[in-house]
Each structure stands twice: as C-alpha cells, then as structure tokens.
Specification:
This is Putative brg-1 associated factor. This protein is of the alpha+beta class and 450 residues long. The protein is 39% helix and 21% strand. Among the domains are: 157 residues, YEATS domain (Immunoglobulin-like); 73 residues, Orthogonal Bundle (MDM2); 52 residues. It is built from eleven helices and 17 strands. Strands 1, 2, 5, 8, 16 and 17 form a six-stranded antiparallel beta sheet that branches. A four-stranded antiparallel beta sheet has the order 7-6-9-15, with no helix packed on it. A three-stranded antiparallel beta sheet has the order 11-10-14. α2 crosses α7 and α8 packs across α9.
Length: 450
Amino acid sequence: MMNAPTQPRPIHNAGPPAGMSSPATVVRKRAIPEAAAINAMNPQVKKKRAIDRNIPEKLDTLVPESRLYTELQEFERKLDSTIVRKKLEITESLSKPMKVKRTLRVFISNTSCNQQPIQEAEGNEIDYGSNIPAWTLRIEGRLLDPINAKSTRPPTRKFSHFFKSIIVELDRDPEMYPEGNLIEWNKAPDSDDVDGFEIKRKGDANLKAKIFLNLDQQPPRYKLSPELESVLDIQEETKQGIIMALWQYIKHNNLQDNEDKRIINNDMRLYGIFNAPRIAFPQVPELISKHLAPVDPIVIEYTIRVDKEFHQSRYAYDIEVELDDPNKMRLAALASNSVNQKEIHNLDDKIVQCVQSINNSKTKRDFLLNFANSPIDFINKWIASQSRDLEVILGESKVNLEEQRKSEFYKQDWVNEAVFHYTNAQTQRRMQELLGASSMNRNDQRFLNK
C-alpha cells in the first residue's frame, strides 16, 4: 500500500451638473433661474468652469491672424478624438490577457553520499556504520533571457511559479522503503516562489524516477475530446478560445436559426457532440465541459545514480511558458495617467480668460463703432434699452401694446433667450413638484408601514 506522498524541500536562491413676468422683459440682464433651481435641488453641485473658447465671429476680417487660432482648435479636436480612441483601445486590450512566450530551462541532477561500505577484517560482513547511504534529487530551472534582449536582467519569476504541482515517482520496492515512492508538491495560494526542489531519500542502488510537471497556466488550458477536436481541429486551448472557435464554425456553416439567432441547429458533427438537434448558444459553455480535460503533464524520465557523488542528466529540458506582457503595466499606467491633467486645465483656464478678454474688447469696439457711425440713433436706442432694463429691475415694466401687435417685436435678439430660460424654469419647477410628491408618498408609505 502506497504511503501518503511527502513534500520536497524547496531551494531558495538570493536574488533579485421662477417664471417670467412678461415676454418683453430683458432676460439676458437677469439671473438665470435654471441654475438657481438646480442648486436648490442639489446644493452640492459645483460651479461650472467657463469653457467658451471660441473667438467672436468675423474677427478674422479685423485680425487675419485669428484664423491660426481656429486652425489650432480644429487640430486640437482631431487630437482629442485620436487620444480618446487610443485610450479606449488600450482599455479594451487591458481587459484581455496579454502574454509573452518565454523559455524555462529545467535541469535534473542528483548527489549521493555514504555509498562506500566498510568491510570488517575477519569476515565478509559489510557495515556502513552510522553513515546511512542516501541520495538527493535536485529539480531546478531558470527563465532564459529573450533572444534579442539588450541586457541581462534578473529573472522576473522563479521556477516554482510556473507549476501548480510537481510529482516524482520512484521505481523501487515499497517493502524495503516504507516512506513511499511518491513525492508530491502542490502550490499553496500564498506560498513563495522558489528556484527548485530537493528530495532526499535513503538508498544505495541506482533507480529510475519519473518527474511529472503540471504547468500553472492562466487562464487555464484544456485538452479537447477526440470528437470536439475533430470538429475544431484544436488539441489544447483556453475555454474562451474553444467557445470562439465553435462560434466561428457555427457562423461558417450557417447553423443559426432564422427566427431566433440564439438557437443553433446542429449539423451531424455537432449532433454527435451535444446529442441534441438544437441547442441554445448560451448553454455551450456548460455543454462542452464534459468534452474538456486537464492538459497532460510534462513527463521527464531520469535515472538516479549513486555510483558517483554528483550526476547530472545529459539533457536540459526547455519548456515554453507564458508571462504577463511587461508592456501591460506601461499601458495601464498610460491609460490612467493624470499627471499632466492639472497643467492642461490651467492652460485651458488661461485660454478662456484670453478669449473672454477678446470678446470684451470686440464688444467695446462694436459699441464705440456704432456710436461713431450714428451717435444720435445709437444714444436713443441705448437710452431706450437702459430704461427698459431699469423698469424690469424696479418691477415697473410696461409694454407698448402697439409694439406687441407687430411681428418685428418677436424677432428681437432677446426673444429666443427669454423663451429658453422660461421653458427651463417651468421644467425645473415641474421637477421640484414631482420630487416633492415623491417624497410625500415615501413618507406616507413609511407611516402606513409603522
């Protein structure tokens, strides 16, 4: 009967966001009720930053150089669009496994000790004394540098990182060696990685050993059943890759139902796998589970020799392993980079201030130019405008009914703005009424529950 497998000894190496009184009021001179309504509903709303960075229209006729600013704005929009698209691509790529293939070189060797017996002088008896013959099996490995590596760097991962279990099976008489012939190591969740393992046992004769290496692959890979392998022509793959390959087979053979695209009408080959004429594609991950098995371990045969103090296998074994792409960390840091955002916001604020200054200068110029062209008409219009504003402020606004009967009255610049703010105010008032009614209903419900 085989005894419980024992654990090998690890090897550690040092290293490395109010209604209006009259349609004739000049709304552009009043406080905007929409913002007040929003702030009343949510007192935590922050004041928005000024974002108007467009220079006044027809400014290029006065300052031809202003066209360069417009061209820069267009270039900035294209650049922002490209940056956003690239960030989305990086974010999408980060959600997928990014792996690079490297080579892990495995070395097998053994040492022996106390293999020379002491023969007594008077007879033929052989005595080992207090020194018991023993041997030590060493299983080690290291990650090779890439072929085009510019410099040699310490390995990022140690030997045990790449395996979930290692089993050593010894070919010897279990009656003579009751400690068992099976040595097994399984990776613990929080265990530290090591550079190799040592297995020490008693023995004074050469023996054969089989070493089973089970790779720790993330995401896990599976071996396909012969039936599924004949359909997909894949021997080993991740579950996601198998489902994707099966989907490509279904699309290529037009097996989707015409009415419900989620239903798959199996052909003869898929019928032999799923034993059903029709299946729902969301069931595929569960249905293919019985056709998947763990991948076979890597088997290395080695002869432990005790006739010499040190013996090493004539071969080194290269195993292709996968590592997380080091560029993934760089892409993640690039996608979340916010170091320059503060500087960009400061520059945007300066641009907004400059544009506001240009707008103010353009307004002053238009004011003075209109006054210079026709001083009397300009002053009359300006006095009328100021008088109306004063009436609005004092609440004594009076509208000439004769003016309201003419269509030109409703084509003035302030009408669209007044209608906009009036409708927004009505919308906010209605929202507050609905919120108040909802709050009362909740209070009534709590009272009834009590």
